[in-house]
Amino acid sequence: MGKTIRYVIAAGLLGTALPVSQAEAATLIVDVTGAQSYGAFGTIQNTVQTFNIGALSRITGIAFDVTISAFDPSYLSEALLGFTGSDVDGDGVFFTPGIADENPGTGSYAGSADLTDLGLDFAVGTDGILRLEYFESLNDASVSPDARWTGGTLTFTYDEVTAAVPEPATWMMMFAGFAMVGGAARYRRRTTRVRYA
User: Fold this and answer.
1) CB-based burial of residue 193 (10 Å sphere; 0-12 exposed, 13-18 middle, 19+ buried)?
2) Sign (positive or negative) of CA dihedral 53, 95, 91, 25
3) CA torsion angle for 54, 153, 151, 50 (degrees, to 10)?
4) Of 7, 69, 81, 159, which is the most buried if we count CB atoms within 10 A?
5) Each residue of 146-159: pLDDT tens digit?
6) Average model confidence (pLDDT) for the chain?
């Protein structure tokens, strides 16, 4: 009976000593200068950037201050940015800075969006990769590329999932738990020999 109780207490100590994951707010600033879009999402020539922001980090917002040039007959409203995890078929957002600008030429756009408020926040995969692809909603075959992001930045806010570092008292509890498990196992292996005269 005593062996079982010791083992359960040790397992309970181990259970409370394990670190817990928590989210920590972070930002990623991306320089868009020189990014080009040639065709639809997935077109091989489109500029793609990848950033490791940590496994299962949740993208919660975007701020932008960018300048884009669209080459005639392509419109500024056709230049898009897709940001997803490395699994492009998973969750993500397609973003159009010049959404109402139905003209070729150069335009500058600034603003921000809280993706959580819009219901568009998403988590990257276990590889931690945030993937950006600059693409076109309509490919104008007479120009190549259709658009170039000539300057500015994108600022992504995200909740980074981090493992909590146990405090010294927690480490002591964990070591005590291991010692009790070891003691229980050792106690269980003892054999009793009986001699008859």
Assistant:
1) exposed
2) positive
3) 10
4) 81
5) 999 999 999 999 99
6) 83
